[in-house]
């Protein structure tokens, strides 16, 4: 039992450096994640900690859960909490692993922990955009925040990867893939859990339209006299 307790403590102690960070440093890194720096000659510094990115992912989960509840989203299999956690953590871990593999192929100088930290702090722009647009339902406002706030956080990550990658083709492949995935993920989070379907239906049909009913068409109208005459003729024939 003592050896098991010691081994468990040793495993926890391995993760301690990645979460040993001051709140002032986290605040500074949040602000830096929205400021792209154009420096290509030297590799830009990436914080090798996971406390800030993990808290941002949990914040995104809470905001996404709020969007699901306000839009009356119905999950047929599973729960709203499980869907929100799976979506946010799946994107963070999955895209980080994919970009790290792509960076390995493109000879970029970045580790897996640095990639997790870079993409995690890049979600700060997503949290701001979704928090505002889930409460203020204007699609034009969302596109402004999508291009402004989301674009700044994406440019920050792209600038860091450009400074750590050699070769124009490698930079184009790596940075283009990351930018496309990051911006499309924000679009998905907005339109998948938002009152967009009701807005489209109200725009096309109007808020007071009756339900659609199927009407029989191309059927000639036959009078009662013609029907009676035809019935008598059939009866006499029989």
From TrEMBL:
It is a multi-pass membrane protein. It is found in: Cell membrane; Cytoplasm; Golgi apparatus, cis-Golgi network membrane. The chain crosses the membrane at residues 50-68, 80-106, 118-137, 143-163, 172-193. InterPro entries: tRNA_Mod/Golgi_Maint. GO terms for biological process: cell differentiation. Signal peptide: none annotated. Involved in the maintenance of the Golgi structure. May play a role in hematopoiesis. Belongs to the YIP1 family. This is Protein YIPF3. It comes from Gavia stellata.
